[in-house]
Amino acid sequence: MSYRISVVGLGYVGLIHAVGFANLGYRVLGYDVDRVKVEKLRRGSPTIYEPGLEEYLTRALSSGALEFTDNIEDAVLGSDVTFITVGTPSLPDGSVDLSQVASAARGVGRALRLKRGWHLVVVKSTVPPGTTEGLVAGILEEESGMKAFKDFGVASNPEFLREGSALRDFFKPDRVVLGVRDERSRDTLLKLYEPIEAPKIVTTPKVAELAKYASNLFLAVRVSLANEVGVVCKALGVDCYEVLGIVGLDHRIGGHYLRAGLGFGGSCLPKDVRAFIRLAESLGVQARIARAALEVNEEQPRRAVELLEKHMGSLKGRRIGVLGLAFKPGTDDVRESRALDVIRLLLEKGAEVYANDPKALDNARRLLGDKVKLVENPQELVDAVEAVIIATEWSEYENLDYRGKIVVDGRRVEGARRTAKVYEGLCW
Ligand code: UGA
Question: What pTM value is reported for the model?
């Protein structure tokens, strides 16, 4: 049987999965409450920047495999498996805001009342352990009038996509994690993921949910540990990339997530570490290492600004450029970008801030308004300012002419070292 899939919530994760599953040959219905978004996607215009997305989206639309709707009932009734892929942002205390998950489950549950035949609901959003079997299954039962794990399936299937390489990660993941409680859900998901070559781990929903948080926590801790080593390296006058290069060759350690610099940003790592801390606390456990990872991360933008002050003295009224606004290259996403922290600190010190990004200017404009001068051409930005902080390692910044400028490099852009008047690596 070729399953029909619906995807509820067309943010980053939802859109990649809708497009990905459609390109695997499934019929996919993508649903979002936002009509404007649905219209745009119908026209084949991606709502986010992600390498390869436009081509895959066009292909899926023209083959008829992918359709978009703003009617959740149509999405659920027109499919056999529904993925919930809505956002789970942080609340002010760091815990997880599950309101979007709850409202998605409500919509799906109501539609299930009208459905004939078995249906599987899969939670892909990152949620605290227990949410799939608790909150989600509960709401689905309430709204549908049916029994979860019997009349319909509920499962957890966390995602491990990295922005900037999300489609590659979708088609070639390191593992597929299936958190299930009943056989039919397990068999359905195993069949659905058959075209994907990767180890399939079948476990309980709680394990699957926690594995996601633990993975992001490990990644965040590695980055912060690299940064801590980096700060010591800088104080000693040695290059932490040389040191960590040697460290990473130990196969027990490995070379990934050892790039020291401004630290981790984005919509996942900071949020998931905060959620892990809250989860641990709620269980009476001190999450010391997770806390330290956040602390180290918070310090890096401040260090960058201090290095600038070391060379310039007061920043009041000085023209400073920030190269890169996206939280990493290959995306237009500025959520929790370290560049925003750098900019906030510069503005607090009275600097006149200029900023550039190859993809994220529109998203940044929405957040920053007219507090910062956004410049489309990076060379023009460098020419207009006295000093530059490099916040994102876009390849576009490698070959700029930094002559006569002070450069504080937060991301190891080698090209800047060659031409800058003064070059300061954050940890090298
Ligand atoms: C992260 C995880 O890597 C994915 O596996 C996960 O699916 C995703 O969160 C999620 O939970 O949805 P993502 O946030 O897209 O993916 O980006 P990463 O590539 O992990 O980078 C996160 C941040 O860490 C970036 O700001 C990056 O610049 C920084 N970073 C990464 C470093 O500073 N050094 C490194 O060595 C690696």
Answer: 0.96
- Beta pairing partners, 100: none
Ligand 1 neighbourhood includes 160 CB (under 6 angstroms): yes
Same domain flag for 274 and 415: yes
The rounded percent of the chain whose pLDDT value lies above 90 is 99
Residue 15: CB within 6 Å of ligand 1?
A: no
Q: Give the Å distance between the CA of 223 and the centre of ligand 1.
A: 9
pLDDT in tens, 304-360: 999 999 999 999 999 999 999 999 999 999 999 999 999 999 999 999 999 999 999
Quote the ligand 1 centre to 263 CA distance (angstroms): 10
241 and 195 both lie in a single domain: no
Tokens of residue 401, six digits: 């002419």
Which protein residue's CA is at the shortest distance from atom 24 of ligand 1? 264
Asked if the model's pLDDT at residue 1 lies above 90, the reply is: no
pLDDT tens digits, 131-150? 999 999 999 999 999 999 99
Q: Is residue 216 within 6 Å of ligand 1 at its C-beta? A: yes
Distance CA 323, CA 336 (A): 16
The sign one gets for the Cα dihedral 316, 317, 322, 325 is: positive
Pair (366, 227) in one structural domain: yes
- Active-site positions read 268
Q: What is the number of domains present in the chain? A: 2
pLDDT computed for residue 210 by the predictor:
98
Work out the end-to-end distance of the chain between its first and last CA atoms, rounded to an integer number of angstroms. 56
Give the closest residue (by CA) to ligand 1 atom 2. 162
pLDDT, position 2: 85
Residues 191 and 294 placed together within one structural domain of the fold: no
pLDDT at 328: 96
Burial tier of 367 (Cβ tally within 10 Å: 0-12, 13-18, 19+): middle
**Distance separating alpha carbons of residues 227 and 160, to the nearest angstrom:** 23
Domain boundary among 171, 203, 235: 203
Query: For residue 395, what is the domain's CATH number?
Result: 3.40.50.720
Domain around 103: 4-203
172 with 264, same domain: the answer is no
The answer to whether residues 239 and 374 belong to one domain is: yes
Q: Are residues 166 and 228 in the same domain?
A: no
